Amino acid sequence: MITASPVVLSILSAGYCRHPELLTLRGGSLRPVAFPAGYAVIRHPQFGPILFDTGYSSRFFQETAKLPAALYRHITPVVFMEEESAAHRLRQAGIAPEEVRLVVLSHFHADHIGGVRDFPQAEFIYLQKSYDAVRDLGPVKAVRAGFLPGLLPEDFLERSRPVNGASPKRPLPAGLPFSEGYDLLEDGSLLAVELSGHAAGMIGVFLSSGGHDYLLCADTVWSSRAFRENRRPHPAAGLIMSSRKEYALNFDRLCELHSGHPELRIVPSHCREALAAWGTGGVQ
């Protein structure tokens, strides 16, 4: 196992948006396709249910009702049903949202933080530079960065446990394109690596579950075909990236990781293929 302590993983989605495939995969179709807003529920033996992102919630539509945020809603049309929400899925499994004490945020785009207000007792773990990149943006720049500040609770900072260069780390196994990961729970079960490029300070998380190793890679790619076939997004996608250079670096790392470790389950947040293969449909 890549990590020291196994967990139980449920891979789910809450809503989806539609984009031409060409923007996310060079050589893809001009036809708009659905990109699920993926998230994960991690059942930890000590910390209980933990979320990795949240997907959308109905709050997205409230926050994008007026300009300039309404531009977000029109550029990326969203389809969402309340029964898909992370809070609803947890209730179906007999877990009250108040029982969730930790939410790991890969980055601050609206399709990843849409449901955080549904978890009033949770603390938030994220890379400090990820929040620093969006916290002081004005309304127009925030929309351009995919950030809707109203999705965050008023006491967000008080409930935050940001990760920075001084945070605990653990070495990762030799042969991986990452030498070490942030030890988010200080028990070796969730090891985060920086995957900046799509968004500043974005993180992915290595974990082990059910005898398999996983990398929840957030938006490093939009589909498994990208790293499997070494197909980058269309150059126009660079307009919404925080850094084309960092994106290229981490895209190459993902391709290397898949090539050297094909048994590793790499899970992009918006990949229908990964969701169909390893998604659970409910919280385990």
Automatic annotation (TrEMBL):
It comes from the Bacteria. Its cofactor is Zn(2+). SMART domains: Lactamase_B (SM00849). One of its GO terms (molecular function) is hydrolase activity. InterPro entries: MBL_superfamily_lactonases (IPR051013), Metallo-B-lactamas (IPR001279), RibonucZ/Hydroxyglut_hydro (IPR036866). Keywords: Hydrolase, Metal-binding, Zinc. Residues 36-261 form the Metallo-beta-lactamase domain. Counteracts the endogenous Pycsar antiviral defense system. Phosphodiesterase that enables metal-dependent hydrolysis of host cyclic nucleotide Pycsar defense signals such as cCMP and cUMP. Belongs to the metallo-beta-lactamase superfamily. PANTHER family: 102 KBASES UNSTABLE REGION: FROM 1 TO 119443, QUORUM-QUENCHING LACTONASE YTNP-RELATED-RELATED. This is MBL fold metallo-hydrolase.
